[in-house]
Design brief:
The chain is built from three helices and no strands. The model has no long low-confidence stretch (mean pLDDT 90). By secondary structure, the chain is an all-alpha fold. The chain has a domain at 26-92: Orthogonal Bundle (Helix Hairpins), CATH 1.10.287. It is elongated.
């Protein structure tokens, strides 16, 4: 039987993979996908506690996080495409257009 502990361990593993992707990788798309993976792991925690406690509050927060993730995807991909048109690289170390 799958318990709350199993869901939390899976969420921690997914979150650690996302943090590892943000820290180690230098490609903007990989960093972007790693942030989305971290948001998904937080959603898994909200859903697992919501089911464990018998409340719908966690499910409501999941909709909020999904809304933020969708907005981040739209804006983030727009910025990445605009940067790629100006300079054909997506490595964070080589892109200096965002510095003031």
């Amino acid at each position: 039987m799958i318990t709350l502990h199993h869901y939390l361990v899976l969420a921690v593993i997914l979150f650690c993979i996302g943090v590892f992707g943000v820290i180690v990788r230098r490609n903007m798309l990989v960093i972007f996908m790693s942030i989305e993976l971290m948001l998904s792991s937080v959603n898994l925690v909200f859903l697992s506690f919501s089911r464990f406690l018998g409340s719908t509050d966690g499910q409501i927060w999941v909709f909020m996080v999904l809304t933020v993730a969708a907005a981040e995807a739209a804006v983030g991909l727009g910025i990445i495409v605009a940067l790629f048109r100006n300079k054909p690289t997506l490595y964070v170390d080589e892109v200096k257009e965002l510095k003031g």
